[in-house]
Structure formats: structure tokens, C-alpha cells
Amino acid sequence: xxxxxxxxxxxxxxxxxxxxxxxxxxxxxxxxxxxxxxxxxxxxxxxxxxxxxxxxxxxxxxxxxxxxxxxxxxxxxxxxxxxxxxxxxxxxxxxxxxxxxxxxxxxxxxxxxxxxxxxxxxxxxxxxxxxxxxxxxxxxxxxxxxxxxxxxxxxxxxxxxxxxxxxxxxxxxxxxxxxxxxxxxxxxxxxxxxxxxxxxx
Length: 201
Known about the structure:
By secondary structure, the protein is of the alpha+beta class. The protein has a domain at 12-74 and 112-130 and 141-194. It has helices spanning 10-17, 20-33, 51-55, 65-71, 78-81, 102-112, 121-127, 165-170, and strands at residues 36-40, 58-59, 73-77, 88-92, 116-120, 143-147, 160-164, 178-182, 191-196. Helix 1 runs antiparallel to helix 6 (102-112). The longest helix is centred in the N-terminal third of the chain and has 14 residues, at 20-33. The protein is elongated, with a radius of gyration of 20 Å.
């Protein structure tokens, strides 16, 4: 019987060998290094509603306007949001920022014969809430780090999950959540009378 080879890259290997507590610490340091903000990608709302319009809607608790305004809010670096590419977090072997993980950094750099470890920022977010990560890749039958918000620069932990490539790709055709809204009247704000979940639940 042959042993399955672990095909983790240097970044995934590093996330594999640190503890969950260290992953949480790494995530917190990463957030402290840049100006991270919450924002809503309004192209995901049709017809378009802004945060103020969402937040004044009443509804059956907890699924009222403020709930959906928060649920739709992503979290990311102001610099990253403007980039069309996935943003890596680079950790150099001689780092002065991530010294708490020096032993694991050295071990990873030695194993992969490199001086810098490149991690995807949302993988750090995912690892900080998971005891371990499977090998993440793009091949058929592989596991993905999936953005439920469909925004690759988001590092909000609640928006990122591990799931199969097939489920992740099926989200491309998902119509999303449908809100049935009773318009505002002269005496009351708009009311969410029904929230129909997407086919993914």
C-alpha cells in the first residue's frame, strides 16, 4: 500500500504545523498591519440597496434589515480591495513582525528551500477557525477555501469555509437569497416579510 503524498505548498505547510492558537494570533497580527474595513459589495444586491436602506428595514428577528446589512458586510484591507489579484501574506525568514512563529518559519523555509513563505490571506483567516486544513488545490475532487460572499479579498472568518470544488463551483450559478419586502408607508419603514434562502442553505 502506497502512502499518499502531502502536496501542501510552503504556505499551507506552515499553516498545518502551527497551532490553532498561533493561527488566531497570526490572523490578529495580519489585521493590525493594514487598514482593514467592513464594506458591502452592492453589485451583489439587485435591485441595489445601500447600507442605510437595508438598516432601516424591520422584519422578524433576527432576520431584519440590520441583520442583512451585517451579513452582507465583508472585511478586507483597503489596499487589497483595489487589486484584481488574490493578495498574499509574505513572511520572510528574518521577519521582525512574526517572530512568535520563528521556529515554524525556519522549519518551513528549510523544508521548501526558500527564504520567504507566501500565504493567501483568506487561508490564514480559515486556519484561525479550523483545527486543521485539508490540502487545498484546484484539481477535480479537491477541497477549496470557498468565499460564501464571492469576494476573494474578504478575510471575514464567517464568510470563508472549506468545501469541495464541485460545491464551490456550483455557487457561480446560485441566485442567492431572495427578500420579499413590503415598501415603506407614511407610518412605517419597509418590512422584510420573507427571506427565502439560496439553494445552498
